[in-house]
Each structure stands twice: as structure tokens, then as C-alpha cells.
Write a structure and sequence with these properties.
alpha/beta, TIM Barrel, 8-stranded parallel beta sheet, 12 helices, 39% helix, globular, binds zinc ion, ACMSD, Amidohydrolase, carboxy-lyase activity, lyase
Length: 285
Amino acid sequence: MDLIDAHVHLYPIAVNRDPVGWATEHGEAHWAQLCTRKRKDGAPVQAFPTMAQLLFDLNAAGIRRAVLMGWYWERHATCVEHNRFYASCLQAYPTRFAAFATVHPDAGQKALDEIRRAKDAGFCGIGELSPHSQHVPLDEPVWHRILELAAELDMPVNLHVTDPASRPYPGRVDTPLADFIAMAKDFPKTNFILAHWGGGLAWAEAAAGLRNVWFDTAASPLLYGPEVWKKGPIGRVLFGSDYPLMLYPKTGAGHGFADLLAEAKAAGADDSIFRVNAATLLGIE
Ligand SMILES: [Zn+2]
């Protein structure tokens, strides 16, 4: 099978070795809160696999390619470090990975330069960004420049979206859904991938008909029941896991690639969701 997982996170060895210590040292408290926390039963929300482990897990699940997503870091230096790491992954396995570059808008021109550098290194998108978490208001001109450059370089922008109806968890950030609709309308030449089913926008009237908006399914089992696979607009949905997040904490299925694929297939997800939409949008066939 030639499946594409359009939403995977991977970190350099320095992060994996001591995620909490690394985050403290690098001023990335919000990431630490989201990614190094433990559930009530004491189990970590995610593991910190190496590139080799990711490849092993992809092979076991029959996933051909993983799209490596950056993170909405709080510091420009971290964005650069993460982008360099993904560039090395791309270089090592150009047919197994694709990558999205991350930036912090506070860096201004440096953020724009970083996007151009990433494009030259073979990155195919920008994200996962979260304007609401990165503390730069959406009406700041720097966002406009980033979104316009994304359109110019044909790099879709993946944005983290929180469903307003979702239950609270430590580090949860409110992301008003109307902001994403406004963004898509204000930047019609920029393609957006709204993560996590767009926080419900995938099946909302407000987003219907927006030609520059796609959705990914990252973390779906933690947020929604299997019925959502039937609800999204099929031509606009990209299969994504949010690996290495533990998707099925109650069953102990680990990162849960196999269970997620089974859930999606049982609900009728087809080749367009598993491969075609991502391949077409990202140009990575
Ligand atoms: Zn993610």
C-alpha cells in the first residue's frame, strides 16, 4: 500500500534523550506541557521515537510516506533547529518522508528567510503553526507576509485547530474557528490544512465551498468517534495520525497506526483520504 500519513512529529536525539530538560533549557514550556505530560493513569501521552523507530512503525503499518510536521515553537532558534533536523531526514530518506517547515512570526524577516531556505531544501509545506499559541495576533503584518510567501512558493500551511467543544486538557489553547474562515477568505491563494478535522470545521457549513481549505485527521480517536470518517468532505481530507501521540490510551495500542487504519477503513475511508489528496496537494507522489 502506498499510504501517506500527512501529520507526523519527530524530534532530534537531543530532545528524545531528555524532553523535559531540553524544553527547560530551550524555553519551550508550552510544548513540554503538551508533549511530556502524563495521563491520570500515569502513562505518557506520547513516546519519543527515533527516525529508525518511525520507519519501523511505518513499515509495520504499510505506510509509504510520513509528512513530518514542525511544531508551533515559542522560539525562532528552536524552529531553525527542528527544520535542520527534518532536512537531514529528507536527505536520508527522500522517498519515505516529506517535511513541513516551522517558523515563529516574531522572527520577522528571518522567518521568511527560513521558509525560502526550507523550500530550497525540498520541504513541501509550512506548519504545524498555531497563531493562537505563538502569541502574535493574526492581524500583525508578519502573518500576512508569511501566508503570502506560502502562496508564492506553493507551500500549504498546516494550522493547529482546537474544537471549541473539546474537553479541557493541560496546555489547551482556544482557537476561535471564525479566525480560520477569515484567514482562508483573506488569503485565497494560500492553501490551508486545518489539523484535527479543523476542530469540527470539516463538517461545518461555514467552511463548505472554501477552495483553499483541507483538513487532516490528526489525533482523531482522542477527539472524536469513528463516525467522523464519514462526515468530512472526502476530497478535502488528508489521513494523518499525530504520531507519536498515543491514540488509543485505553487499549494500550501505543502510537496506534494499526488501530487508526483499521478504524478509518471500517468507516469507509478510501484512497483519496489515504493517499491521493495529500499526494496531489503536496506534490509528493
Ligand atoms: Zn500535530
